Model the fold of this input.
Amino acid sequence: MTASGVVLETELAGAKLFKRGKVRDVYDLGDQLLIVATDRISAFDVVIPTGIPSKGAVLTQISAFWFEKMTDLTPTHLVSADTDRITQMHPVLKTHRAVLAGRSMLARKTEVVPIECVVRGYLAGSGWKEYQKSQSVCGVLLPAGLKEAQELPEPIFTPATKEESGHDINISEVEMAKRVGADLTTALRETSLAVYSRARDYARSKGIIIADTKFEFGRFNGEPMLIDELLTPDSSRFWPVEEYAPGRSPVSFDKQFVRDYLEGLSWDKTPPAPALPEEIVRKTSAKYLQALAVLTGRGLS
Done:
């Protein structure tokens, strides 16, 4: 934790560090994992040296909100996002309560399925670029004449590989089935589309369009289970309804301020990344906090 309260990296004495990702520090607690979302931010697959205040807490609390909303559709790995309960279940963590508060989840340990389950409801990002060339996205043929950011006739499932470094690679359902099996592919597609559809309708009622998102799954006792983060500004493309119009890409509730700033520099998008100025940090933090407030109706807890 820095002097400003921004958590860039955690060291929890008594807990075994399992993995340090771009944003999350994951600890092995036996048959459970402790997932701590730091305030790190990445852009173009590079971690930025400047943290975004409250970002980790926002990601954790949005994820927990969605996990609880989807329990009738699919099992999830969430055990608890309540810091008091987490420290009661694992007393070794009590001395770290200040760092963990609001930004940590206790989760079941699963066998991770090595596929990003992407659902697209609107034509944006890499999907828009591919559509312009082939009128398809990840092998899914779409109607002619669609505009950038236009809503698709129905959401499409477009899986991708999970890469430890660099960009994930889009693959077809056929390729996914070769890698993880046809039955699991069907189950994950159906669950992904159901979760997305529920989230899309709820978010739209609150003034947010979820243009696309990615889900991760693990297997627990052999059965698929929704894991990792869920429907956050880091894993999804959120657009404000009031600014939406087909034909252009709306401003997102995410790290777009960071991307736009970095695109204006001469940085070659390889490490080390440049630090961010205070204005960009402040605007980005405000966007994350706005997403939490709009979706959940409450601020940070």
Q: What stands out?
A: The longest strand covers residues 208-220.
